[in-house]
Amino acid sequence: MHIAIIMDGNGRWATRRHLPRTAGHRAGAKAVNDIVEAAARRDVRTLSLYAFSAANWDRPKSEVSALLRLLQRYLLTQTRRCLEQSIRINVIGRRDRLSPTLRRAIEHSERATAQCKRMCLRIAVDYSAQYSLMEAARRSLAGDTRAPEHPAPHERSPRAGALHDGRSSRDSASRDSASRDSASRDSASRDCTARDSVSRDSTPRDSESRDCTSRDCTSRDCTSRDCTSRDSTSRDGTSRDSTSRDSESRDCTSRDSTSRGGTSRDRAQFIATLAAVDHSVDGPPEVDLLIRTGGEQRLSDFLLFECAYAELYFAQTLWPDFNAAALDAALADYSRRERRFGQISAAPARAGLG
């Protein structure tokens, strides 16, 4: 089972007690220890915690610095504890904007717990699902699935240096995004030009084959247009043996019936690229249950791809007060739900929408 938690409410917890927000984050870190152990005892295989989002860079410099120091201290003090309980640590998200000291702490924790099997603890730091998806798409178009641990200077965002000091700005973030979008459009344009050129120079048989496997054409369109074209060509007398024609027809039918869109091969390749972008060691694994504390009811750019079929649970409890009993309440609610994944319910039909 994969549980993901948006740990919300540290600041409000502190404010209600007339304490600085950093005191709320320290209390939240203690709650992390309790929930990690509770999840492991309940045989949860993967636990993903939203520790620091890409949007959190826009918080006051003092709070950003405190959060990152708290994360580094957690890794230094809890790695041995995780090792003793066979809990593997995996930090997901960008690393090029983190300090070298924090990156070294992350790498040490991941290496030290790499052989742990009981549970995988995934901590999201400088994480944005939108960025991850766009970057994975860009790499897929460019044919680059690598995940460089230390990006070259020209690959770093213009605001990277400022972020180390907590002086982020949405304007520079917008420039980063615009630059990436422009590069993606240029790459896509070159790919389309190349495909058009090849299509004009190739034989009809080669052209049909490429059209059928093109990512730009949906499985349903591919089935209807290409299979019809091949049947028409066959009637016109073009030599092609029946075995080849039957095989291609089965290929088109298979692509049309692939679940959740695209071919299984395309999906597997994209998942591998997304895992490389996120530095994910297992994944990205689909989320079964997403819990958000603090009373808010939104995903906040967390694991959007992995949460496609997740059950959502929103707790009013602020994160520092979220304990094993609260986790049990969420699991009890989850156990009463029926997960159909778009299929028909196995239970007798009831009135209303099914």
Write the layout of secondary structure elements.
Layout: E1 2-6, H1 10-16, H2 21-41, E2 46-53, H3 61-84, E3 87-92, H4 100-112, E4 119-127, H5 129-142, H6 160-164, H7 170-201, H8 204-213, H9 219-235, H10 242-257, H11 264-278, E5 289-292, E6 311-314, H12 324-335
Parallel strand pairs: 1-2, 1-5, 2-4, 3-4, 5-6
Helix pairs in contact: 1-2, 2-3, 3-4, 5-7, 5-11, 8-9, 9-10
Task: Describe the model.
- The protein is an alpha/beta fold.
- It folds into two domains: 2-180 and 279-335, Decaprenyl diphosphate synthase-like (Undecaprenyl pyrophosphate synthetase), CATH 3.40.1180.10; 204-277, no CATH class.
- It has helices spanning 10-16, 21-41, 61-84, 100-112, 129-142, 160-164, 170-201, 204-213, 219-235, 242-257, 264-278, 324-335, and strands at 2-6, 46-53, 87-92, 119-127, 289-292, 311-314.
- The chain has a six-stranded parallel β-sheet, sandwiched between helices.
- Helix 4 (100-112) links the parallel strand 3 and strand 4 (119-127).
- Helix 1 (10-16) packs across helix 2 (21-41) and helix 8 runs antiparallel to helix 9 (219-235).
- The chain is globular.
- It starts with a strand and ends in a 19-residue tail after the last helix.
- Mean pLDDT is 76; it is low at 148-180, 187-258 and 349-354.
Keywords:
single chain; 354 residues; alpha/beta; Undecaprenyl pyrophosphate synthetase; 2 domains; six-stranded parallel sheet; 12 helices
